[in-house]
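User: Second chain of the day. Same drill as before.
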Amino acid sequence: MKTRIIYIVSAVVLLLVILLIAGGNLSRNMGDQSTEMSKSTFSNKDKKAGGVYAAFKLLPRLFYKNSLQVVTKPFARTYEREKELKYTGNAYILVADELFTTEKDIEAMLDYVSPGNELFIAVNTPDPALAKQLNFTTVDGTNLQKQKVGYVQQYVDKTVPIDTSFNYDGMISGSYFSHIDSANTTVLGANYKNKPNFIRVSHNSGYFYILLNPYTFTNYFVLHKNNVAALETQLSYLQYDANNVYWDDFYNSQDGPQSGDFSEWQVLMRYPAMRWALWLAAALVLLYVIFESKRRQRIIPDKPALTNTSLEFVDAIGQLYYQQHNNFNLAHKMITHLLEYIRTRYYINTNLLNEEFIAKLSKKSAVSETDIRELLQMMHHIQLEGNISDDYLKEFYKRIQLFYLNTK
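Assistant: Same format as last time:
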């Protein structure tokens, strides 16, 4: 009954794993071919239209040192652990649909930018607390895809000068800035309604770059015609020779404000495959508890094995024959025991002890034919001679023991 239950549980688990793999491959293949961007992930591992895999792979080429570090923790935690962020010469890039931060995150961002670092944030909806700190307000416009417009992103900067625009058939962001602090803020770009959606905010010796169009990082946008130039344009404001370039892979998976302290479990639960693996492991543990929690029979103590007194008996008989100097009778019994051993262990007929017998026994016992032949010659000599000396008996006994020890 127990074996049957194990088979059933194993079959169910195997079926679930096959369905998960098949479903994942099917959805992945359908997603790779789709240009639907209403649920863009902005994940650097996502190769679908709404992922940012292409931009992430192109990013090291836009910086002199070609270095890129992926961050998977909140900004405050990263700033606390990464000593390099407290010095100048760093660039930090954050791409997400909506930015949810904490007071500690905002304080860490301000401390990070102050000495001369740069923080590039591309989101549809920035955190209101950060907007208040940097003295700007935004209007959440409608994001749409099924509409033809002249351009989806424009870059304007008279100091460079830059006046260029880009288009594609993907998702269009309608958010824009309704108020900025002109004393320390510069407009660098506009959306399809010619409303400002890309600004630079100076903070002490560093800069915040806020872009209300994260779709310019998506695969669909970057790989469309020459739109990679848009990625190069908006990131050209960052230090080309930055000592460290950080890519944020935490905030793109946040669906709401952070609750409580951040834990490593939050990182694991962000990925569907990991979530399924954890739930499956929990289900297996539950099944094990259910089926193994039944009362088991008390362990029966092992009884000591019975001693084999037959060997002691044979040794005693041998000593008796040896003390009586009945060497021939003792040797004859040794021969009989040896032949019986060969018959029962190797299933070889011992009626004819010829060359064929020697070859078979050597092959099965792994003892050389020479040693077997010498042993048979001693057996033949004993059978012909009626009187056996003690020395010859000892030598014959040694030959038999060597045969027993060397056989396989």
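Residues 37-262 form a domain with the Rossmann fold fold (CATH 3.40.50).

User: Great, on to the next one.
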